[in-house]
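Usage example:
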Amino acid sequence: MSIVAASPPRENALAALIKHSRYVISENPVTGFAFALFVLIVLAAVLGPHLVPYDPLQSDTSEALKPPNLHHLFGTDQLGRDIFSRVVVATRLDFFIAVASVVLVFVMGGFAGVAAGFFGGWTDRIVGRIADTIMAFPLFVLAMGIVAALGNTVQNIVIATAIVNFPLYARIARAEANVRREAGFVEAARLSGNSDWRILAFQILPNVFPILVVQMSLTMGYAILNAAGLSFIGLGVRPPTPEWGIMVAEGAQFIVSGEWWNAFFPGAALMVAVFCFNLLGDGLRDMVDPRRRT
Amino acid sequence: MTADPALSVEDLSVQFRTRSGVVHALDNVSFSLAKGETLALVGESGSGKSVTAYAVMGILDSAGRVTGGRAMLGDLDLLSATPKQLADVRGRKIAMIFQNPRTALNPIRTVGRQIADMLIRHGGVSRRAAPAHAVEMLRAVGITDPARRAKAYPFEMSGGMCQRVMIAIALAAKPSLLIADEPTTGLDVTTQAVIMDLIGDLASDLGMATIFITHDLALAGQRSSRIVVMHAGHVVENAQTKDLFANPRHPYTAELIAATPDSAQNLDALSAIPGSLPDLRRADLPPCRYSERCPRKVAACAQPLPQAAPGASHIVACWNALPDRAQAAYPPAVSAA
Amino acid sequence: MTALLEVAEVFKLFPAGGGASPWMRLRRRLAGGPENVPKVHAVDDVSFTIEKGETVGLVGESGCGKSTLVRALTRLIDVSDGSIKLGVRELALKPSRVFARDRDRARIQMVFQDAGESVNPRFTAFTAIADPLRRLRKLRGAALQERVETVAGQCGLPLQLLSRFPHQLSGGQRARVGIARAIAVEPDLLVLDEPTAALDVSIQVVILQLLQRLKQETGMSYLFVSHDLSVVRLLCDRVLVMYLGKIVESGPAREVFEHPLHPYTQALVAAVPRLHADGSNRLRLTGEPRSPIDPDPHVCRFYGRCPRGTEACQMTMPALRYFGNRQVACHFAEEALLRRHTAP
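Running the assembly step on the lines above writes:
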C-alpha cells in the first residue's frame, strides 16, 4: 500500500469535472453541438449590440419591406429597420428573460420544495397549498394576469414566468428532499454536528441540484416562448424594443402579403434557442451527476 | 458425474457486453446434479453463481450472451431451446425463486391469483379449480388462514410470508428441479431456518432436485449434500459436503472456510483471502483465475486447468491442490514458484 | 467506577399508522378526549450499561427495536421516557434536534450498515471524513488534512483513494471510509449498525480485524448491532438479546451462545447455520410475532411463539432477572439454568 499524499481535493474536483465534461461531449456529439450553439447564443447576447451592422432602432422608410439581400441579410421590416440587427440584439433581451426567470424560480421553488420535503409538517402543507393554487390556473392565462396586474415591464415578465413554474420546481425539489430525508448520510451528517439548515444547504441541495438543472434548461426555453407569447398579445415588451416575440407578432400580418422574412427570422431564432436549451438539459445532467462518472 | 442427472451443465461460458468492455463472466462451468439431490452453488460476489442460474433459466440480461456449452434438462438443451420449448419446461420441469421476495412478486395482483396463474399455465388445472388449489398450496407452505391470505397483496405480507408465496408459485406445477437464488438473504435467521426447512421438506416430498445459490458456506453445508465452489466464473471445487469440509483441496475453498466466522474460536484465527478478484474484462486472463492471488502458485498454473476425471466424486480444478487427506499416503509436496 | 454509558428504563413509543394529521389531533382535543392514539412500543423499558473499553453486542430480529434503540442512544431521535447517561451527564434531557451542536456530540459516533448509503454521493472520501472534524473539532487547512490522512492510514485506506467518490470505491473501501469518519473525532463510544452485513465474507474478516485493532489502540467501547450471531460471538464481550422492544437475555457472548437460557435465544442459536453441525437441532419458532402496538403489559412478549406457554406467561410479564453474570427474562429461567448445569 503506497502512501502517496492526496492532492488538494478542490483542484482535483475541478480537473475531474473538466475531464468528465470533455468525455460527455465527445461521447454524445449532439450535446457538443448544443453546447457550441449555446456559446454562440451567449456571444450574440453579450457582444451582439456592438457588432451589428445597423442600429436596430433606426428606421428608414425608403428601405421598408425589402427581402433578404446583400445589404440586409434578413431583409427589412415595415419601418425599414434591419431585421438581422434586430434579431441579434433581441438575443440579449430574450436570453436575459430566460436566465432571470430560471434563476428566480430555482431559488424560490427549489428552496421552498426542499424545505417542504425535508421538514414536512406545516411547511409542507403551506408550500403544497400555494403550489396547488397556482396550478389551478391555466398557466399562460395566469402569466397574462400577473403581467397585466403588475405592469408591462420586463421584470414583471420574469416574475410571472417564475411564479407560473414554481409548482413544478417545488414538486421536484420536494420529492427529492423527501427521499433523502431518511438517507444514511443525513443521519451521519447529524452525528457529525451539522444542524438541520446545514444539512439542507450542503447535503440535500447539492443532491437535488442536478435534477433541477435539467428542468432549468427546459424552463429557459419555455420562458422565452412565454415572453414571446405575452409580447405577441401586447403585454410585456413594448415596441420599438427588439424582442423575438414582438417581431413575430408584427411580422405575422405581412406573411399573407408575401413578406415572409419579417416573421420567419425571429421565429427561427426562437426555435433555435429553445432547441438548444432542451438539448443542453440532457447534456448538463450527464455532466453534473457524479454517479455517471466512471 | 451421475447417470441420468436432473440437470447437467457442460462447459457453460457467458459474456457480458458493457460500456467498458466485454466481461468474461463464466468460463467452462460444468456440474451436474442427480434427481432429488440438493446442490449448493457457493461463491462470493462476482463468482458468477447467479449468472449461471440465470443462463440456465434463459433469463440473462440483454447484455449477456451464452458463448458456449449446454445445459441438459433431460434431453433438452436449455441454452439452445426455442422460446416455446423454454416456456413449456418453465414451471413444469424447472422453477426458480429469487432473492428479494417482495420485489419478485407482482405487486398489483393478489397472491392467490399469482399462484392460480401458475397452476393454470403449467399445472394443467382448470380456471375454475385453480383458486381452490391455490389456497391448498398456501396451506402447504405453512401460511396460516390461507383462504383469507389468498386475497392479500404482497405489500401486506412480511418478507418471510412473501418468500413462502414465491415458493408456492414455484412449486405449484410440481417441477422436478428448483433453483433458489439466495432465497433467504435479507430474512431473519429464525425465518431463514423455517424457510429452508420448508424447501427441504417439500423437495423430499416431491422428489425434487434443488440448486441453492448462496454466499453463506455454513448454510450451504447444512442444507445440501453436494457443494460446488465458484470463483471468478470458474468452478474450482465440486464435492460432497462432508468431503468438502473435511478435505478441502482447492486453496480458495480452504481460504473461504478459514474466513468464515464460524470456523474460528477467536477473531485472530480468522484469515482473509489474499489478493482480490481479477478484472474479468481483461483479454489476458490466466487459465486459472485464482492463480494471481494464490500462495500455492506453481509453474504448471500457466497451463489450462486439468480436466475432471469422468465419474469423480470430488473434483478440483487445480494443479497444486492441497494434500488429499482421504488418501493413505500424501502426494509429494510441490514447491511454490 | 461509573460506567461509560448507562441506559435506564428507556421507552420509545411511536403513534401507530404514522400518526394523525394536525386537524385530527385538534378535533380529538376539542372533543374533550385525550390524544388516544394507538402506539407502537418500539423500545419498552430497556436498561443496560456499557463499561469503558467493552464491546457489547445487540442482537434481535427485524422489528425488535434495536435500530430505534440505537438511534435513541446516538441522540438522533428522542426517547419517550427514561435516561441515557454518558458518564455523569444525562443526555436524554437535550432534544435531539439541537444535540448536533452539543459539546458531547463527538463522544458517541456511529458506523452505518451500508457505507454507500451513509456517505453523500456527492462527497469525496476526503470530504466525508473531514466533515465531523470541521464541525466538531473546528479543524481547517493543513491541520485538517493531516488529521484526515492519519485517520485514513489507521483504517488502512490508501491516501490516493481519498479523492474518490463512493461509487468509485469497492464495498470494503467504503466501509473503511465510514469507520474513518466515525473515529476521526475520537469518540468514547462507537455504535456499529451491522457494519459488515453488505460485505463479502473475506472483506468482513479484514474489517472485523480492523475494528478489533482500533479498539485496542484507542480504548473505545463498541456497541455492535448485528443479526449475524457468529460475528457477534467473535467480536463481543457481552451480548444483549432483544425481542419486541425488550431485552430478554444478556450475558457474556460465548456463554449466551453456547448455553442460551431464554427460549427465543435458544431458537435463535438453533437457527444459525453452523459449519460443522448437521442441522438436526430443529428448535423452530412457529407463528408470527405479537403485535407491538399497545401490547398487553401482563403478557410475555414471546407468548404464542414460544415452544412453552403457560398460565404464568399470560398473567405476568417476566422481569429481567440476574443469575450471576447472566440476565434472563423468563419464568422458566431457573429450569434452563438447572438443565444446563446437569447436562453432560
